Amino acid sequence: MHAYAVEPLVSVVMPVRNGAATIGKQLEALAGQHAPPPFEVVISDNGSTDDLTGALDAATRRWPQLCIRRIDSSARPGISFARNAGIRHACSARILICDSDDVVGADWVRELAAGLDIYDGVGGALDERLLNAPNSSDQTYAAAGLPVGLGFLPYPVGANCGVRREVWQVLGGFDEDYLLGAEEVDFYWRLQLGGYALGFVPAAVVAYRHRTGLSHILRLGFRRGIGSCQLAARFKTHIPPESLWTIGGSWARLIARLPLLGIPDRRLGYLRAAAHRVGQVVGSVRYSVIHLA
């Protein structure tokens, strides 16, 4: 166990794979938190091949007040495995989760940790403007509440969420079979179905970074489409079946938006949506479920 001058009351778990280029900004934000409870930062290294160690050494020298621990979670690829490994090594009962390529707000630790005094699981708001180009696709400011998945239950995005450690243990952690997205949706749905309370903490804001590059955007949309089908199959008894009318209308709207390919500011958003739909076709076959709308 790591020796602390003051025992942390909160553990920030950050799954990382090749995050050396961006993690410094995130750690700087954590080092500059306003009046937080004592906290540690557990870096769960999921097989990085870049100079993550060098980036962490530089951060430790620059912000010696920040309690950083790196643990090796390279035994199995996947963000769920990395999150679970980080939580297992965490010292405290209140677990906050963020990513290495985003930037938490100055009150994030205090506000999200306080939410866990009230709720069993929590999520905060996303600012998708600060780190992205002015005309970045799918740009929103998610401050009104948590998103609702597949018309069923709300969930927090994995880049800005938290859970009480004992609840994580009861639920068996994040499901490591999810490798293509939707793992946080699955976890927080199971939390609510288990009778636990999920809360939204709007003052806990994370500046969320969009992915860039056409190939990455297409791959991400495709993977998330498959992941949504895995989720739909897992919770099919809770989710109303999609009608042919709904599916047909959804695909008709996608086809009707084809002219967006000619508008530079809208092209990437359309291609991501199209890749997601293709992923849904593949996922529906793979998981024997109809999720095409």
Describe what you observe in this structure.
The protein is of the alpha/beta class. It folds into two domains: 10-207, Spore Coat Polysaccharide Biosynthesis Protein SpsA, Chain A; 214-286, no CATH class. It is 39% helix and 19% strand. It has nine helices and eleven strands. It has helices at residues 23-31, 52-62, 79-89, 108-115, 165-171, 183-193, 214-234, 244-256, 264-286, and strands at residues 10-16, 39-45, 67-72, 94-98, 103-104, 121-127, 141-142, 148-149, 153-154, 160-164, 198-207. The strands form two sheets. Strands 1, 2, 3, 4, 5, 6, 7, 10 and 11 form a nine-stranded mixed β-sheet that branches. Strand 8 (148-149) and strand 9 (153-154) form a beta hairpin. Helix 1 runs parallel beside helix 2. The N and C termini lie far apart (49 Å). Mean pLDDT is 92; it is low at 137-141.
CATH superfamily placement of the largest domain? Spore Coat Polysaccharide Biosynthesis Protein SpsA, Chain A
Q: Quickly give the structural class.
A: alpha/beta
CATH architectural category of the largest domain: Alpha-Beta Complex
Largest sheet: 9 strands, mixed
List how many beta strands DSSP finds: 11
Distance between the termini: 49 Å
Name the overall outline. Answer: globular
Q: Roughly what fraction of the amino acids lie in strands?
A: 15-25%
**Structural domain tally:** 2
